From TrEMBL, chain A:
Its cofactor is thiamine diphosphate. It is an enzyme of class 1 (oxidoreductase). It comes from the Eukaryota. Pfam families: Transket_pyr (PF02779), Transketolase_C (PF02780). One of its GO terms (cellular component) is chloroplast. This is pyruvate dehydrogenase (acetyl-transferring). Tetramer of 2 alpha and 2 beta subunits.
UniProtKB/TrEMBL annotation, chain B:
Coiled coil: none annotated. Pfam families: E1_dh. It comes from Brassica carinata (Ethiopian mustard). Its cofactor is thiamine diphosphate. GO terms for biological process: pyruvate decarboxylation to acetyl-CoA. This is Pyruvate dehydrogenase E1 component subunit alpha.
Amino acid sequence: MAARIHGGAGAGAATALSTFNPKKLVAPSRTNLPAARSSKRCIVAAAGSDASKSLRVGHSQKLIANAAVATKAETSATTGTGHELLLFEALQEGLEEEMDRDPHVCVMGEDVGHYGGSYKVTKGLADKFGDLRVLDTPICENAFTGMGIGAAMTGLRPVIEGMNMGFLLLAFNQISNNCGMLHYTSGGQFTIPVVIRGPGGVGRQLGAEHSQRLESYFQSIPGIQMVACSTPYNAKGLMKAAIRSENPVILFEHVLLYNLKEKIPDEEYICNLEEAEMVRPGEHITILTYSRMRYHVMQAAKTLVNKGYDPEVIDIRSLKPFDLYTIGNSVKKTHRVLIVEECMRTGGIGASLTAAINENFHDYLDAPVMCLSSQDVPTPYAGTLEEWTVVQPAQIVTAVEQLCQ
Amino acid sequence: MALSRLSLRSNNPFLKPTATSLPPSTRRHVSTDTTPITIETAAPFTSHQCDAPSRSVSTSSAEILSFFRDMARMRRMEIAADSLYKAKMIRGFCHLYDGQEALAVGMEAAITRRDAIITSYRDHCTFLGRGGELVDAFSELMGRKRGCSDGKGGSMHFYKKDASFYGGHGIVGAQIPLGCGLAFAQKYSKEENVTFVLYGDGAANQGQLFEALNIAALWDLPAILVCENNHYGMGTATWRSAKSPAYFKRGDYVPGLKVDGMDVLAVKQACKFAKEHALKNGPIILEMDTYRYHGHSMSDPGSTYRTRDEVSGVRQVRDPIERVRKLLLSHDIATEKELKDMEKEVRKEVDDAVAQAKECPTPEASELFTNMYVKDCGVESFGADRKELKVTLP
């Protein structure tokens, strides 16, 4: 069964459900599965000889190296013509279109102007829009995040860039207290239409302090929305949606995904901020993921398909609030959930998602929700160690086999 | 002292007493003469990296009288809040501004409602100065729906958007970058307005102040940073918390001015000067030497780190309302009795507002979830074929 990746945002959810035909294929339904609620967790010896290798991924075996980097994502652009670009260019395109459209949109961050942005997302914008709209700030995250929020209180729409998401910890007070809460504590008088964006995540051997995943820290701030982009298509769409939204939005990008190439439509489009993306519809198990782990999951999906499994892969995209509608429908269909994330095990997005699924869809589950997260360690510098802090495709395959036994 | 004594009793249309229940026969005719008079400030300004403004302040009888009235109203409001807190009608934190009224009133006299003000948690009187209603203030303090933030903000979160009053912030110093953001937006929109960013002597040691100052000076933002130096950061005196207590000089490359914050005319002059300066040359720091009679908040008696003699000493010598009273009496703008009557009116005004606020209902339970998000999620989103796609969350 070929993996079908739906490039259209939102359309995927609707079409996947409409093509589900229970009579068509022999899918293991609830009744077919053996002793689903047993706590026995033996590893099923699969038929293929490569199975044992995948269970024990030794250091000798070549790890699937950075599957996400420079992979051409298969995509079906919804219309015939389109243009191919890299993810950071897609972000730039979205940003530029919004700045053209609305003079209130401005960008502020370190080295976003003359330098062009440390990941080139804002390249060329300073020349086009001038220094007042694309502001090079000094290195003071607390102050310039606060400034962006103050400006937003009057009606401007700043896009605040953290050169690395980890630096925004210095601005946590501003993001939590002022950004998230001002709309509420002022009784609705002020809106804070800021976008806070930046790259995070593990992968370029940047060391512990520059490989942080802040989505877990920000997720409990009331009043903000969080989204994570993973393809050029949704990067542009989410950037535009975030800028147009009246709520403060934190857009999480990933250091390793900036050079992804994809063909995106020429026409204007926006992605829904609160919607999850159906990457690959399936029957046996729901795999929820976001950002870079999507590619590890898809890599694992290839292996799984060869072994006869039919995973349904959903890129949740919206980290706060969760799209429980799409997720719920999927759980009701497959009855098994695996969450694959890059956050730490403790208190990460996966932890919250596990709780949410257990609370809302407990009756539909045939097995406990399984969550694969990064290890609770500071990210080491050494390449091999860094690979092991995050979830690898082989581990995903193992986990699916465990859940689907 | 250069001044012109004018015939100060006039039959011009007068300030209507706000207590409309007074019968017509007891309405007082007080002077509303707006002819400019010049009065010298009691103390000179000390400046840093700029020329100090002149000590001669241009004002008028009507204005000085309005100073008295506004300050009396603010003083009464704070004292009423004190009683309400002790009666447990106000809960949580309550930071009172009495003693510092000259700052709020003098600043308002120098600026317009298009200029922005942002301050910290000691914001009741600033809110009033920006045109806030007494009822809204008391309702907010008591957690009623009528409050200026719908009862969801509390004492530390007063806001008034239409008067460019941006609050009301609980975290010490966090409002300073916000204020520079307001100034940035004013510069971006090319309005000829300024932002007054108020903070205290305690907040003056925050790193974000210097970060924001650097940006403001770098980009020539029309931000005026006002340090309300009441000499105590909660329980810690300035000499114990700051190596250099000359807060107006801390900007280094940013000009500064030290002002007697208990003299409402000096405050007015300084703010006027600062506004002109900021619109031309970028940020400036004003250090207002002021004093608070209450403790840091209602939980702090205010006597463990300072003597009662010190407090009463300041009250006798430097009280801002007494100063204005003396000014009014010595210039024959009003008589003793008229001022006492005005104070009685103000007292009644405040009492009425408290009574009205007590009648107001508390917010409904559903209000817990309102104003979390604007439009409660959902931006119009569409694919490349312009089909509108919206997902309804259950």
